[in-house]
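Residues determine shape. Next comes a sample protein:
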Amino acid sequence: MTAKVHAPGEAAEALESPLLAAAGFSHAFFTRRGGVSAPPWDTLSFAVALGDDPAAVRQNLERAARRLGIPAARLYYLSQVHGVAARVLAGDEDRDDVVREVGDITLSRANGVGCGVRSADCAPILVADRRSGAVAAVHSGWRGTVLRVVVEAVRALRSLAGAGAELVAAIGPHIEACCFEIGEDVAADLAACSSAGGAAIVRGASGPRPRADIRRILRAQLAEAGLDHGAIDDVRGCTACDPARFFSYRRDGQRSGRLLSAIVAGRTVIS
């Protein structure tokens, strides 16, 4: 499906998954446009620790929350460490306390709670249950992909949602195979972590180093976790080769900002 770009007025710009939207979930894969941060974090960045002005990040968070239709106090993300730890949110937590917690999965089934992850090349995955309205946001870089973090997220979401869950998912923009050069050791680990196998490792005329198709691996892992092919959406974009829309650690190093991807628990539309 083709992602929809949404940026009314001065709102934060975001890409949407037609699949998640049709299922009734407010969500966004935010680009770097539509915020207030100064260069090199211009303009919609969500990380203070990298040197950005905390006041600018707070305003960016307000803009993102407004785009999602929730208060900024109910839009959560964690300190990510490329692991598989999950945090279930009720919506009454202090978001400043939550962001100091370590983990790579946020989940909730409390109506109006925004579950988010931040990225700057790693893949964001948003997952939702059509029946209960429960949602999860997942951060999956190559290390998390090897650890099968998205499979753990689906397991945790099914547990939270209860029997009969009908899951849909969208894989957002990240560093794509066109730019993701890796070493042979990482290539071997990635080839072994899903049914995609070696087909997810690209070799060819672009250079001697292999490249990884993380999107293909994640789709295979989601299928292994029980999602049908038609229940998985691709929201395309390569963070490394599209500096106008995305931050990229691979491209810009420590001076890169951080993108936000988020989904709100509770369905707003009946599909």
Q: What stands out?
A: Residues 4-9 have pLDDT under 50 and may be disordered. The radius of gyration is 17 Å.
